[in-house]
Design goal:
Blueprint: H1 6-19, H2 24-32, H3 57-69, H4 78-95, H5 107-114, H6 126-133
Helix pairs in contact: 1-4, 2-3, 3-4, 3-5
Length: 140
């Protein structure tokens, strides 16, 4: 990936804050729940159906999101921005695949939650995300 301009980095951070609408404490609790470990695909492309199937790509990304959210803006590196772009893209694509019916306990919702987005909560604006998590603007 080529060097990002400050404007590009700012746009990525803003989009990431919008896509990741779960505060870190809630995401951390979710990733510890059994349901979070029963959805998604493994890195090898196998569907995860039980907690013994290994961590899904989304579950690993949820852990990565927590790392990123714990950094100050000045500490973010190129691989952090690459991960943020991946999260933004996944959330946008997955939201377009919304299934019919009750979403509360759906695998679709649970998969999105592994990526830090609860579709029942809606889309965050950066300021709403900051208020919800109690984060200082210098942190993600």
């Amino acid at each position: 990936m080529s060097e990002l301009s400050e404007a590009q980095k700012k746009a990525i951070r803003s989009d990431f804050k919008g896509a990741v609408n779960m505060p870190p404490a809630r995401l951390r609790r979710w990733l510890q729940a059994a349901d979070s470990k029963r959805v998604g695909m493994t890195k090898g492309g196998r569907k995860v159906a039980s907690t013994g199937d290994g961590k899904s790509v989304g579950h690993r990304m949820g852990e990565r999101i927590l790392e990123i959210k714990g950094k100050r803006v000045a500490q973010l590196e190129a691989d952090d921005y690459q991960a943020m772009r991946k999260v933004i893209g996944y959330v946008h694509r997955h939201l377009r695949q919304r299934p019919a019916g009750d979403l509360k306990d759906s695998r679709w919702r649970q998969s999105l939650m592994n990526w830090g987005h609860d579709p029942l909560k809606g889309w965050n604006t950066p300021r709403a995300c900051d208020r919800a998590s109690g984060a200082s603007r210098q942190f993600l």
